[in-house]
Amino acid sequence: MRNSLLLAAIVGTFAAPAAVMAEEAAEATSPHTITYNIGLTSNYIFRGTSQSGDRPAVQGGVDYSHSSGFYVGTWASSISWLADTGADGAGGDRAYNSSSMEWDLYGGYTAEIGESGVTYDVGVLQYIYPGRRNSAPDTFNADTTEIYGGLSYKWVSAKYSWSPSKSAFGFRGRGASYIDLTLEVPFGESGYSAIAHVGRQEFGNGPNEYDYTDWKLGLSKAWDNGIVVGGYYTDTDADRSAFTYGPVFSGKENWTLFVQKTF
Fold this sequence. Notes:
CHP02001; about 10% helix; two-stranded antiparallel sheet; TorF family putative porin; mainly beta; signal; Porin; 20 strands
C-alpha cells in the first residue's frame, strides 16, 4: 500500500493540472496574512512592572494583516496583579476580587512614507481585564483604551500612546500617556538581536506622583521556524506605594526569560 501511494504521489506531481498550480501561485501572492503566536515567560513585564506577581505567564495571540497596510489582532496573557492587590490600592482606584487574564484587541494601519525607509503606524488598542470587580465606592475599572502613533527607521522606533479613558489601568484620571523609545539591533544574519528601551508612563490629570520611567536591556535569538528565545533586564523608578500588589513591588528590577513560537 505504501508503494502504491508513493507512486500515485509522484505521478500526481508531474500531472498536476494547470488550475492547481495557478491556485498555488495565487495563494503565494495573497494579500492576506494570518499568523499565530504562543509563548511562555518567566515574568510578564509590561512597561517595566510585573503583571504576574513575579511568576511565569502563558501568552498567545492571532494577527491578520492586509498588503494595503491595515491590520487587526488579539492577544492574551495570564496575570495576577489585580487579584494580588487584595484591597483598594493607589488611593482606592484598583480593586478586583478576582482577575487572572489580560485580553487585548487592536487594529491599525502601517505604511512607508514614500521611499524614505521611515514607516509609520497608527491604531487603537483596547486592554480588557475580565474578572469580578469590587463594588466598593471610588474604585476604577482597569479596562483601558489607547490611541497610538509611531515611527520607525531601520533599528530605531518611537511610539506615543494616549488614553481617552477616564481611568488607565486602574489609576484615576483621563489622558494617561506613554512614550516608548526603542533600539533593536540585529547581529547580521545570525538571528541574534540586542534591544535597548526607555519609556515614560504618565497618568494625565490623575495622581502625578505615580508617573514613572522604565528601561530595558535584552538579547534574543530567532530561528527560521518561528521560535524566538531571549531574556532582558528591566527596572523603573516607580513609586513603591502605588505598585505594590500583595507582598510584591512590581516596579523593581527584574531578569526575565521567554520563549515564543510564531506560526
